[in-house]
């Protein structure tokens, strides 16, 4: 079960990070909107960077969950 949760967290975190990065890059360099976050709210480039960091933190949390489940499986 921990393995499934780890993979789900990694996937969700990766998607959130990519959407934040797309929003930041598109707004900063191309003055357009990429991704789907702009449909939810009008955000600044700094907010998009914050979303990118949040997504990366969720993905790292998922990786740590996977590492813990592998260590528990090896100990058993």
Mind explaining what this structure looks like?
This protein has one domain (2-75). It contains two helices and no strands. It has helices at 2-30, 45-75. Helix 1 packs antiparallel against helix 2. The longest helix has 31 residues, at 45-75.
Kindly summarize this structure in a few lines.
It contains two helices and no strands. It is mostly helical. It has one domain.
What descriptors fit this protein?
76 residues, 79% helix, mainly alpha
Beta-strand content bin:
under 5%
Structural domain tally: 1
Overall geometric form: elongated
User: How many β-strand runs?
Assistant: 0
Order of helices and strands: HH
Which structural class matches the secondary elements?
mainly alpha
State the helicity in percent bands: over 70%
Total helical elements: 2
Spatial separation of the terminal alpha carbons: 15 Å
Largest sheet composition? none
Low-confidence stretches: none
Please specify the SSE layout and strand pairing.
Elements: H1 2-30, H2 45-75
């Amino acid at each position: 079960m921990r393995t499934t949760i780890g993979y789900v967290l990694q996937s969700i975190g990766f998607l959130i990070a990519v959407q934040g990065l797309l929003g930041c890059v598109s707004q900063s360099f191309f003055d357009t909107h990429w991704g789907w976050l702009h449909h939810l709210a009008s955000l600044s480039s700094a907010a998009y960077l914050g979303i990118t960091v949040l997504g990366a933190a969720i993905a790292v949390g998922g990786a740590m969950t996977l590492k813990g489940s592998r260590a528990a499986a090896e100990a058993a």
